[in-house]
Recover the amino acids of this structure.
């Protein structure tokens, strides 16, 4: 925990002074004051994190953490567990939605095996960081050991640090793992003291009967494990997932080094919630890209007081919503950098100024 | 009216047959059925309009119609009327928000003077289509003659046709004109039988007192003109604007030639409402890019049963929201064209299939 505590201790709120300066600059641009809404607040947030008034177009990466879940055996997903492995191959050959959307927004896509059940060949263009071959079934006991959780978090920390060392300034959260909406519901339920039914949805696609079954599985997992809601590491150990723990590490390391974090859907938001409970200041670095129809996503975003940018009814994960959110962040920085001021353009400013 | 009736008669609903085929294709891609939400429906809408199963990346244009409004004299805007002219120069030199965002989404920006009060030099890189030097003050009588309205509509028709002749497949609606939220509120109030206070907002920025004054101006304009709510041309004549009439023409010509129309904010949405009342089938071609905080925008989008993609609290106009919406449409077509199928990627499809 020492290394993690060091990181947490170094996370600071955004720089208010520079944000005031950039708002003054935004107010001189040829548009009514505040009329670009979220584009203005995103530019301000980026500048407040990066502590520069003249930010260049940011280099962006989506970190896609993949892992398996023992609970997948409980018939909680529309897809069999082997799809996690199969999708890794799909990511590697460029055929998945996140490949298309990461390219669309010009973001690097970093694929990480942090706990896929299958052995993955060394030649695959992924980071091989397998902590273990999937978690245990949380309906029967703890997902993993505390050591596993800490290892997964530190994997995320190290990957984020390496990306940042190489110039990445914005990180989007991606994940893949059959069964991980079930685990996310358990984490969300415990950390926010919500009933499982409030934070459990159809995931990749379940009918009403299977959804009711999934809610029961979440309830039973919480009952048998009795995680300590005030101890994030205990919650991740008992009902967590390796990809969620790793993303928590990515978030903490990113915020520690002034990198904005683009949250994706429900699963990524549970990592955001976990990081927030470990360090509330991390929230300053969050951008909520979109709102998923998974009910738990909205509950978490409200808990974090975050307003999503996009309402596209997307519920795929992989970082797909984060990728689209990045296009809006890019636009916000172009507004800051490329628009003319009232003086430059010889346009009269507001009568009410 | 003859030419316009010909156009309206040729507007057809989207091609259901090809849309069913493309949904089948979308359902074979490596993602849970329907999990890309609006990205799937946008791709389907584009294909249904273009009637091709293999759409290339679309060429896009934003048509920015500029005009002045006699009602600007009534202290209904935070900005003086000369800002319309000044902003034209700003658009021409690339310093406005729409310049930045059109470039961001790789769309052509077509600037049109359809009724700016000032004389604009012939050398400016705009289309000089001035119908008249601004409208009359609608608080005192009709904005313009029916002949003016028809001329403005046909200007929009001709510009859209010319763009489409040159390969444009998607058109975003932009506008500039100090005072045009006041006019839009009057149009929206009449066409939807809503009280002026329901559809009038702060525009470029008014305090509570000036907002109440603006609502009064809208009420008085409607009272003195008594437009026939069942006659769109009469409404535009009595309380309309030249840029709104021209955008109505753009919409009708675009839909007639299978081009999707990206609605921007409140003012553009009044043109969409006008076109819809002239031809309900035009609605199939609409994409609501974003939701503005102007209250009338939401009322119109609900009237048209449209769900906006972006919630960015933007209230600038110019086509800025439409430009950002285009980035989502582009992403949707890349999803359709570039993702692998379950078979291609050797990924197991849903157990519940």
């Amino acid at each position: 925990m020492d290394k993690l505590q060091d990181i947490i201790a170094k996370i600071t709120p955004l720089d208010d002074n520079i944000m005031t300066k950039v708002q003054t600059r935004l107010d001189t641009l040829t548009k009514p004051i505040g009329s670009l809404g979220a584009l203005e607040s995103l530019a301000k947030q980026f500048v407040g994190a990066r502590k520069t008034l003249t930010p260049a177009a940011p280099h962006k990466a989506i970190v896609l953490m993949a892992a398996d879940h023992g609970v997948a055996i409980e018939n909680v997903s529309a897809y069999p567990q082997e799809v996690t492995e199969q999708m890794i191959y799909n990511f590697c050959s460029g055929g998945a939605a996140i490949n298309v959307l990461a390219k669309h927004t010009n973001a690097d896509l970093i694929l990480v095996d942090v706990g896929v059940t299958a052995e993955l060949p060394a030649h695959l263009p992924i980071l091989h960081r397998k902590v273990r071959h999937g978690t245990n079934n949380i309906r029967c006991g703890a997902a993993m050991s505390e050591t596993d959780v800490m290892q997964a978090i530190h994997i995320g920390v190290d990957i984020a640090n390496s990306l940042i060392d190489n110039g990445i300034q914005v990180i989007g959260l991606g994940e893949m793992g059959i069964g991980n909406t079930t685990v996310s519901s358990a984490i969300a339920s415990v950390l926010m003291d919500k009933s499982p039914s409030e934070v459990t949805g159809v995931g990749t696609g379940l009918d009403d009967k299977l959804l009711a079954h999934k809610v029961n599985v979440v309830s039973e997992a919480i009952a048998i494990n009795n995680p300590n809601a005030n101890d994030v590491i205990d919650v991740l150990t008992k009902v967590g997932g390796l990809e969620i723990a790793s993303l928590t590490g990515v978030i903490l390391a990113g915020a520690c080094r002034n990198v904005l974090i683009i949250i994706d859907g429900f699963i990524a938001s549970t990592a955001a919630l976990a990081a927030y409970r470990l360090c509330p200041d991390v929230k300053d670095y969050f951008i909520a890209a979109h709102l998923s129809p998974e009910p738990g996503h909205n509950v978490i975003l409200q808990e974090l007081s975050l307003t999503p940018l996009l309402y596209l009814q997307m519920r795929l994960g992989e970082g797909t919503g984060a990728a689209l959110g990045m296009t809006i962040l890019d636009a916000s920085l172009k507004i800051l950098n490329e628009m003319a001021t009232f003086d430059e353009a010889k346009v009269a400013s507001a009568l009410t100024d």
In short: Strands of chain B lie at 60-67, 108-115, 127-128, 170-176, 260-263, 286-288. Chain B touches chain A through 66 residues (CB under 8 Å). Residues 34 and 266 of chain B are 30 Å apart (CA to CA). DSSP finds 14 helices and six strands in chain B.
